[in-house]
Amino acid sequence: MRRGEGDPVRSRRTKRGPNSNHVGRRFPRPANQPGRRLADTDVPCASRCARAVALAGRASGLPIPLWARSTVIVMGRRSISGYHDNGALIWTWRLSLTVGGAGLLLGAVTAVLWAVGVRVGASALPAVLGILALFLAVNGRIYSAILLRYEQERLPAVPAFVPGPSGLRPRRRVVRRWSGVAWLMMAIVVCLPVSVVTNWTAEPKGMQVGGVTGSVLAIAACWLLGPAARFVITREHLHIDTGFRRTSLPRKLLAGFLADGRNVRAELTDGDHRNFRVDSPLLEAGSNRYRSNVRCRFRTIQAIVRALGEVPPLDTDRPLAVTRARWGPITLAAGAVLATAFVTTLLA
User: Fold this and answer.
1) Comparing C-alpha atoms, which of 92, 70, 11 is closest to residue 20?
2) Other C-beta atoms within 10 Å of 29: how many?
3) In whole angstroms, what is the distance from residue 97 CA to residue 79 CA?
4) DSSP labels for 72-113?
5) Who's near 333: CB < 8 A, 6+ residues apart?
6) What does the pLDDT look like over 156-194, one tens digit per residue?
7) Distance spanning both ends of the chain, measured CA to CA
8) What is the signed CA dihedral for 129, 132, 137, 141, rounded to 10 degrees?
9) Which residues have a Cβ under 8 Å from the Cβ of 344 and sit 6 or more positions away?
10) pTM of this prediction?
């Protein structure tokens, strides 16, 4: 094969075809795809060194370094960014520094306006734009770095099932589900009863009692949607606990974990599977088009697999996945609702 024929990377002239929408560009862009990630096989990176590292890692199956993945080719020429799998913009170092530098420049303009005595209203606009640019640059870079690090990573494999003697320890491990937003909301709600107790004599008694009971109900709801969920690893089962249910998977049937959107699917050797969450349902409120939990998903499964390796398995006579109710959290939720209804009726 002569140089320039059949190689979209080395060819300097391209012909119009079903997968190209321009002529004379060095790297044709696939139709209906405004940008491609470096992980795609037909997209080279911007420098020869990074491209060589990326191709070598792709051929050997080793992870591609972040610096070799963060700059892509878009529409046949060097671009400062591309797009993730979910359509979100890739914030490369070049794009982040450009936007962050613009934010710092706007901050300097604001400082100069304040120094010369310009009124606050006229100098507030560049200050707001500068803060917004810095916020977007920092958060965008962190978001892209996490996705580029974890979105191509396979979930850890389940250790082989090798039963051990019955007297081995440890016999139990607990992995908590990520519930940062639930803890944050509980901390915010706690401020209401604190303020009510502080001003107990200044407000009507009905408002005081109603505020306290409502806060208790909100805290109970946040706890059920967050910290109440966990993963319990015993010698016989992997228990997946949510707010009101427990799904018990025999370790003998556990084949592995697969990513299923933002959730995880536990594959069983009998052909069945179970889906479960790795973060709080409170995160589903609002728009979730660009929300990603790849880091949380990977680290949660990593902790579960580590716990499976620490707790020696034991064969069980009940090799079936079962789901049952968790009566403790159900009783707590029912008690909170009944107490709130009783107090509301008493004060009405």
Assistant:
1) 11
2) 19
3) 14
4) BEETTEE-S--B-TTS-B---HHHHHHHHHHHHHHHHHHHHH
5) 220, 221, 224, 243, 244
6) 999 888 887 777 777 889 998 888 888 888 888 888 777
7) 87
8) -170
9) 210, 213
10) 0.69
